[in-house]
TrEMBL record:
Protein's name according to its UniProt entry: Phenylacetate-coenzyme A ligase
CDD domains, A to Z: PaaK (cd05913)
One annotated GO molecular function: ligase activity
Class of this enzyme: ligase
Family: Belongs to the phenylacetyl-CoA ligase family.
Length: 429
């Protein structure tokens, strides 16, 4: 299969590239990064000790706390005169995670991102409406860099600005939107509300940055009249978005294994999980100059998917991001991920994909309330029975009981970026 940007590599070729990249990264950081010099010394590892990919497990982990402790430019492994840009995480509390980039880092990033547009089946005739944040965050810059490298037309609108978004859709006939799943859902609802479905030309969406359910995806695909949509992965620490994309076979996300190594570990024991099992994704960069990553703990939960993909692309695959190990909350002794509630909603065609979880504590006892919306067009006469049925299903699947409230379509707050699913006020008693 011929691609302009996606290489056709065998497993053996990928392994050879990874070993050479790993050797380079360890040597580069050992020579140029005070942080990694100290960590490698603690682990008793010299650059010459890395002779196979199995030696990866001898290397120390890097964490988000390390990045915050090294603020403002952690992990820096080049002279500052070689830094051409910085980007930061979208966090709102404490010190941001700020990462530095050389020009080569930028060039690698835009090539990876161009692969994503190619994987989604876009052409240079497409018009790509970019509905994600610009500035310190990596999203807008990454989507635009990759679009221009790929050769399609970029429409850099940014998040929010619904009136302008709809104007671009109708007047400039955007064929692809790039956004969070929440933003795609919001735009789909607005297109339907204003009767614009016959005036837009959207065919595809590339979305990411938050976990989603199949129901949520179906809702925005139908509302926007899409032929297909594609889940994208990435993080500020590893260049930004564009480090992998779902293909048209929808059997996992192809990631660029010639640019970074992915491990899946048990977040408690830090040991590798069995092939195909869910665990925390850990990444090691192979070409990153300014701020390399050695075994960086992402806290994203996923699994490696074995075997070759039906689409013909030979790059390996991970499952969609199933949640974050640090998103988990404990309710009455049970470990719960918000996405488990979203999965239960899949069984109720009368309900939409939107939900919120409210945790509180009264008289020393934890309480959980779940607010969900009726699907557009669904009758409202049986809300009480539907709430009971959903509460029973939650208890059956998650082993805890919550008080369910059914709201009308559109009553829950909408987001232009990531939707906040959990509000925990238990510490305020």
């Amino acid at each position: 299969m011929d691609h302009r940007f996606i290489p056709n590599l065998t497993e053996e070729q990928i392994a050879d590239i990874q070993l050479e990249g790993l050797k380079w990264t360890v040597g580069h950081t050992h020579a140029n990064s005070p942080f990694y010099q100290a960590r490698l010394k603690e682990a008793g590892v010299e650059p010459g000790d890395v002779t196979s990919l199995d030696d990866l497990r001898r290397l120390p982990f890097t964490t988000a706390e390390d990045l915050k402790d090294g603020y403002p430019m952690p992990l820096l492994s080049v002279p500052e005169k070689d830094v051409v840009r910085i980007h930061g995480s979208s966090g709102t509390t404490g010190k941001r995670k700020i990462l530095a980039y050389t020009q080569n880092d930028i060039d690698v990033w835009k090539d990876m991102f161009a692969r994503c547009y190619e994987m989604a089946g876009l052409t240079r005739e497409d018009r790509v409406q970019i509905c994600v944040g610009y500035g310190l965050w990596t999203a807008g810059a990454g989507f635009q860099l990759g679009c221009e490298r790929f050769g399609a037309m970029a429409l850099p609108v940014g998040p929010g600005l619904l009136e302008i978004q709809l104007q671009m859709l109708t007047d400039l006939k955007s064929t692809c939107i790039c956004s969070t799943a929440s933003m795609a859902l919001l735009m789909g609802e607005e297109v339907q509300k204003q009767g614009l479905a016959d005036r837009i030309s959207l065919k595809k969406a590339i979305f990411g940055s938050e976990t989603h359910t199949p129901k949520m995806r179906r809702q925005f695909e139908q509302a926007l009249g899409l032929e297909d949509s594609f889940d994208i992965i990435g993080m500020t620490e590893l260049y930004g978005p564009g480090t992998g994309l779902e293909c048209a076979a929808h059997d996992g996300i192809h990631y660029w294994a010639d640019m970074y190594i992915t491990e899946i570990i048990d977040p408690e024991t830090l040991e590798p999980v069995a092939p195909g099992e869910v665990g925390e994704m850990v990444v090691t960069s192979l070409r990153k100059e300014a701020a390399p990553l050695i075994r960086y703990r992402t806290h994203d939960l996923t699994r490696l998917i074995p075997g070759q993909c039906a689409c013909g692309v030979t790059m390996p695959r991970v499952d969609k991001i199933l949640g974050r190990s640090d998103d988990m909350f404990i309710f009455r002794g049970v470990n719960i991920y918000p996405g488990q509630i979203g999965s239960v909603l899949e069984h109720f065609k009368e309900l939409s994909a939107e939900y919120r979880i409210f945790l509180s504590r009264k008289d020393g006892l934890d309480h959980m309330a779940v607010h969900v919306e009726r699907a557009p067009g669904a009758p409202s006469g049986n809300d009480e029975g539907l709430a009971r049925a959903l509460a029973d299903e939650i208890r059956k699947n998650i082993l805890v009981r919550g008080e369910v409230t059914i709201l009308g379509p559109g009553e829950l707050p909408r987001s232009f970026s990531k939707t906040k699913r959990v509000e925990d006020s238990r510490g305020e008693e």
